[in-house]
User: Fold this.
Amino acid sequence: MDEIVSLRLARKRRRRAEKEDAAAQNRLTHGRSKAEKTQTAEIRTLDEKRLEAHRRDDDGGSGG
Assistant:
């Protein structure tokens, strides 16, 4: 015998699965959360400051 299936529940499950697939695609398309973007920007800023702090002043060739 076949299993009895509630069409209403089957439709709901299918809709939920479609929404989850769309959400997964949007996550891939639109990237990261605001917190992740902010954290990356802060790390980049700190790295640039550290690099700038170790840079030599170039006086135009007055090596001594």
Summary: The chain is about 70% helix and 0% strand. Helices lie at 7-30, 34-53. The CA atoms of residues 22 and 28 lie 10 Å apart. The first helix runs from residue 7 to 30.
